[in-house]
Automatic annotation (TrEMBL):
This is Uncharacterized protein. InterPro entries: WD40/YVTN_repeat-like_dom_sf. It comes from the Bacteria. It comes from Micromonospora globbae.
Length: 607
């Protein structure tokens, strides 16, 4: 169960939140909660064709919903429960990254066209200001009585338009270099405040009187900025949830209502308090330099099943399931579960000594260790190194290290293989093993790690190099043993598995192609097409595939001339990322997802 939230907005003494994902019935969940007590006032599951909620805004009566993937901004009346597809503001793939009501208009920033528009509240007429930058994300919009400001994700660009429309003025030279571009901004008394990477920058509307304030080393980014009821400007940081007052020349910490979350809302309340909403579904109320009250909406009627990020069968007989900023541990024999918050999407897990669970979190690239009994989370550090997604974690017990494969930040091409010394806590990242490629997977046999690349990197417009590679790395010396373009027509690998002297690989480009490569003779000895990519894994000398696109579980041959045998056909999809295998100790079954249900799949022997 998750309470993952993307959108949040306030009307009077109610805060409204939208589900990041749809419910199993395909509905977008909208929750209304009391800003003073956290009490749930209503839960409405809305029939909005989309991939879930993205952004909310509100005037005195209506909640405006910008879905993830919808041509329309929707309007919801909390009093009558009327929902309408209110204004067509883009194409069917449009995501709404910022929405601000100011005066008689709703101002929006959209993806993938990185465009700022406004919609007249009276009649839903749409007007376009223009595109901000070559980025796809118009991440932040701010409005005052004269101008409209639009800020983009990386490459961070800031434009200022006359409110009535016309040619923009480029304020980008007043920013700082930011790997994420602009995350939020506000304008107050003629001063623009911009959350730009590791700085909170302010300047007058013409760019004069610029002040750059560095955030604390423990903070990742400022992701929310607001103007309080007292006219003071406040900033909230991702990763720590430190709350700051923005002063003339710096940042003064005035609270920490939560820890280890991303933030979806920071809003002023009339009595001088501040209201926050986290991506995990927390709602909190805090007085600067005072106390904070925190409510978890997952336990107040808002929780809903989600497609999962990752899974792991623990040696203690439990099944660990990673979701969006949450983890559930299932005791399948007892039929009970524990749920706890984690600081990100759990993209990969592995079990180490004493049952410790190591997890890689997105988007922070934080690697954490979780105690299997108390669920206490201990951060080990960040991958950094321009990385974004943990793809696989391997525990190398003889050398007491973790080996982590990862893909790079958006617009980047080069992933990394990172060695984490668990005794010293040091991280050693290697980006040279697969140049200009994401490191999509790592499998280890003996003292050799095999890794495979994706030339498209992460969120790029195309590859730098033409052919993806497979490489072998010595995990003792941490040096490259060999690197090869096994398939000259492959641009992207997806997954690897090693059985004896055979290296199995499945491709993303071409999608679903697979081969078995003899590591002794360095030749391909078997190949075929699975119809889509997913995970390869094996147990007891058998090799299996679970394909995302056909949703089939199949057994692959282990000798030339053998055939692929489908064991399960069209399994209801329950994985956000690739499906994965989690074999029972006797190798006769695997745990996995059947829709949003945890399920055990027997693995019958070939007849």
């Amino acid at each position: 169960m998750t309470a993952a939230v993307r959108g949040a907005a306030v009307i009077g003494d109610s805060v409204f939140i939208t589900s990041r994902f749809n419910t199993p019935e395909g509905k977008m969940r909208l929750g209304e909660f009391d800003v003073n007590t956290g009490e749930m006032r209503s839960i409405d599951d809305l029939a909005i064709a989309s991939s879930g909620g993205q952004k909310l805004a509100a005037d005195d009566r209506y909640v405006y919903i910008g879905p993830a993937g919808s041509a329309y901004v929707h309007r919801f009346d909390p009093r009558t429960k009327e929902l309408v597809a209110w204004a067509r503001a883009g194409g069917s793939t449009t995501w709404y990254y910022d929405m601000v009501v100011h005066g008689e208009h709703l101002y929006i920033g959209t993806y993938p066209d990185c465009t700022v528009k406004r919609i007249r509240l009276a009649d839903a007429t749409v007007e376009t200001y223009g595109r901000i930058s070559t980025s796809q994300y118009a991440a932040a919009v701010a409005v005052d009585d004269e101008y409209v400001y639009g800020g983009s994700a990386a490459p961070g660009t800031l434009l200022r338009w006359p409110k009535a429309g016309g040619s923009p003025v480029d304020l980008t030279p007043h920013l700082s270099t930011s790997p994420v571009g602009i995350l939020d901004m506000v304008v107050s008394d003629g001063v623009v405040y911009v959350a730009c990477g590791r700085q909170l920058i302010s300047f007058d509307r013409d760019g004069s009187h610029r002040v750059s304030r560095d955030i604390a080393a423990e903070d990742r980014y400022v992701d929310q900025v607001t103007v309080g009821a007292d006219g003071r400007v406040y900033a909230l940081t991702r990763l720590t949830t430190n709350l700051y007052e923005v002063t003339a020349d710096g940042l003064v910490k005035v609270g920490q209502p939560l820890a280890d979350v991303e933030n979806q809302l920071l809003a002023p309340l009339p009595d001088g308090a501040l209201l926050g909403v986290s991506g995990l579904g927390h709602v909190w109320r805090a007085t600067p330099n005072g106390t904070a009250s925190v409510w978890q909406t997952a336990t107040r009627g808002f929780g809903y099943p989600e497609t999962i990020q990752s899974m792991m069968r623990h040696t203690r007989g439990t099944i660990w399931v990673g979701g969006h900023y949450g983890m559930t541990v299932h005791r399948t024999e007892a039929g009970t579960s524990d749920r706890f918050d984690v600081n990100g999407e759990v993209k990969a897990m592995a079990e180490g000594k004493a049952g410790v669970v190591y997890a890689g979190l997105y988007p922070s690239t934080q690697i954490v260790a979780i105690d299997p009994g108390s669920y206490r989370i201990r951060p080990l550090g960040l991958l950094g190194n321009e990385q974004l997604r943990t793809k696989r974690i391997h525990v190398d017990r003889p050398r007491n290290q973790l080996i982590v494969a990862s893909s790079p930040q958006t617009t980047k091409h080069t992933g990394a293989l990172t060695f984490i010394d668990l005794a010293t806590g040091t991280f050693e990242g290697h980006r040279e093993f697969l140049p200009d490629q994401s490191v999509m997977d790592v499998v280890v046999q003996g003292t050799t790690a095999y890794i495979a690349g994706d030339t498209y990197g992460e969120g790029t417009t195309g590859p730098v190099r033409k052919v993806a590679q497979v490489a072998a790395v010595d995990i003792v010396t941490r040096r490259l043993l060999w690197r090869e373009e096994i398939k000259p027509d492959w641009q992207s690998y997806e997954n690897l598995y090693v059985l004896g002297n055979l290296l199995y690989a499945v491709g993303r480009r071409p999608r679903g192609a697979w081969f078995a490569y003899d590591l002794h003779t360095r030749r391909i000895v078997m190949e075929g097409d699975l119809g889509g990519y997913g995970q390869l894994n094996g147990v007891d000398g058998r090799v299996f595939s679970w394909v995302h696109w056909t949703n089939d579980i199949s057994e692959l041959p282990t000798v030339p001339g053998g055939e692929v045998v489908t064991l399960y056909d069209n399994v209801p999809r329950g994985w956000y990322n690739n499906p994965s295998f989690h074999f029972t100790p006797d190798g006769r079954a695997t745990w996995g997802m059947h829709g949003t249900d945890l399920a055990r799949f027997p693995l019958p022997r070939r007849s």
